[in-house]
Amino acid sequence: MSLYINNITKYFGNKAAVKDLTLNIDNKQIYGFLGANGAGKTTMFRLILGILEASKGTIRWNGEPINYSNSDGIGYLPEERGLYAELPVKQQLIYFGELRGMTREQASRKIDDWLYRFNITSYANRKLQELSKGNQQKVQFISAVMHSPDLLLLDEPFSGLDPVNVEMLKSAVKYMADEGTTILFSSHRMEHVEELCESLCLLDKGEAILEGNLNAIKRDYGKKNLHIKTSVDLKFLSEFPEVKSIIPKADKTIIQLNDDESIQDILTAVISKGEVTHFSLEEPSLNEIFIEKVGKGYE
Questions:
Q1: By residue range, what is the domain housing residue 237?
Q2: Which of 56, 164, 204, 232 has the CA that lies 20 to 30 A from 171?
Q3: If DSSP codes are grouped into helix, strand and coil, which group holds residue 209?
């Protein structure tokens, strides 16, 4: 059972926001849609949910299209705030729970559990507009998950949040995954996808330029990074044919390699010139891979 996206294309006028995208996403995993703003992530989510109609192709969740007959099993956290600013928090969450088929009592219990988890029980009867941006996002998240969906779509869930609230929401996402929810997660922040997702699709201008298991993508990239801390000027390493680039950082130097066959020779060469306090071989980051594939980095 899975989410099957078959040859999906969506045009707005003459512009393709998503183009010929085919994915088969297995259940019970966190799957990332990665790309810059405007890459097609939000459009893809809206196509999956049926908010937008595809110009071409089909989408099936466990063999069926997503519509009102099975939407109670879906949760969606949009990038834009979608709750009522002047209504009390718990009152509107109960309303959304009832729309998802929950009784008032079921909704109330679930809401209390989530408010406690997010440490915002004291805001239950406060108007949403009185809460900080981070706490409003927590309430929005509760509205998406309180009915324990089988499929959860999170569109840029950490956008604009402070580090404390980012970590709290990450913990909640991991909890939902542990409970068996299939989670589609979009972000333009590489490190968030890298931390949370097992597999991913990297989008650029609506097209998939990388897709598959995260570890396999890194392995197939074919390049490694040496992280070296030393007082030695490492420019001389450019003489090694395996060295692709030398990137000085504040606390270390990163040596990008085309292969790792000469690591011992590089270490010996550096040690011969001075003290080395750190020397490690590390996988490339998603940001590095994206920079090479797309031609520019995004923060």
A1: 224-283
A2: 204
A3: strand
Please write the tens of the pLDDT for every residue from 255-277: 888 877 788 999 999 999 999 99
For the beta carbon of residue 288, count every other beta carbon within 10 angstroms. 19
pLDDT band at 296 (very low <50, low <70, confident <90, very high): low
For residues 51 and 68, state if they share a domain.
yes
pLDDT, tens digit (0-9, with 9 covering 90-100), for 86-135: 999 999 999 999 999 999 999 999 999 999 999 999 999 999 999 998 99
CA-to-CA distance for 31 and 196, rounded, in angstroms? Answer: 8
Residues in the chain: 299
Integer Cα distance of 255 and 92 in angstroms: 53
CB atoms inside a 10 Å sphere around CB 169: 20
